[in-house]
Structures are given as structure tokens and as C-alpha cells.
Write a structure and sequence with these properties.
This protein is α+β, with helices and mostly antiparallel strands. It contains six helices and seven strands. The strands form two sheets. It has a four-stranded mixed beta sheet with strand order 4-6-7-5. The chain has a three-stranded antiparallel beta sheet with strand order 1-3-2, with helices on one face. α3 runs parallel beside α5. The radius of gyration is 24 Å and the shape is elongated. It starts with a strand and ends with a strand.
Amino acid sequence: MLSPDPSLTKPPTLQRVEAFETGWMNSPEHRRNLLSEGLAGFGYGIAGADGRVYGVQLFAGPGTSPSVGPDQAAAPIPPGERSAAMVRLLDQAREGQPALAADDALAAAAADLLDQREAGGETRLFEALPSGERRNWRSLKVLTAGCGGCGTAITDADLHFFRDQWMQDPQFSAALTSERYGAVGAAFEADGEGGKQALVVLGERR
């Protein structure tokens, strides 16, 4: 937030700083940002030159999950329940197609792939499956999504947000609504600083 004062040529006084703050707090948008959850840091600076003075406020933090709709919950989802919760959401988007089966092997593969991505190495899709499962799948499809400044915990609102990202992408939505894939597993990761990642593995059994 920047506030110029073209009439001031002397170094800023306490009264000038207070006037800036009063102006900001009279701004509904500024008040809304200031009072937002998910802010953890604050910085302030003031400087002037050539008859102009600027006050700058900076706010930072991990943010919050996307807006919670009427059918969503803001509470964190326990890790062991996240994949099944996403499968239910994906089934809702399939509009009458056969339901997807929640598969533990695909969920384990999704978690391993997230770890591989985090490590920055090459991802090996079939090798991410548990060793006893690798011959059971004809084909696999990976979908990824992410967000920044969206809080520190995985919530129902995040799952809706990721699902909607996929459904808005023609390639991903075609895979999600295809009869080819009958099983799915999902994994999620939050870095504690506002970044979140989601990864889904769709599977076609042999």
C-alpha cells in the first residue's frame, strides 16, 4: 500500500505517519487485508524526495485456504482421509460415469511421486507403485495441481480448489471423466509456508 504526500518537503514526523495509517484504516480494502487470517509478518517504510513522501506497508504470511463454499469445511483433513475425500469429489464430477475405486496402491504411488518431485529428480511413474502392484496396471495417468499463499493445512476447500483446476483443463478433465480409468489414489503436501501440492494417479487395471 503506497500513500504519496506531494505537499511535504521536510522529513516525516510522527503525525505524518499517523495520518498515513488513519488513511489506510479508512480504506475498506486495506482493513480487509490487514485483518485477514494467515498473515504472520509486517514491515513498514517511509521515504521522501523532491517534495513527495511515500509510506509503504508490507504484509506476509502463509495465507489461508481458498474460500469455503456452503458444502465445504475449513477444518484440516487428517492425512489418512485425504485420498478417499478426493475420490469422492472426483466421482461427483464424473456426472453419471461409473464410480472410481479408491486404491491404496495408487495413493502410495501418488505420495512417492510427490516426494520425487520435491527432491527434484526424475519421476518414475510405475516404479512409484508398491513392488507387488507394478504388473497389475495397464496404464497410469498423473494429474498435478498447486497453490501458493493458501494456508498451512490441507482442507476440504483445498480439495475442491484442486479438483476445479483439473476440471477446467480440457486434457485433465477428459482423463477424469474417461471410462478408461477405474481406480484412483491421491496425495497432498503443504510446506508450512503457504505452498500446497496435489497429485492424483488414475489407473487402468490389466
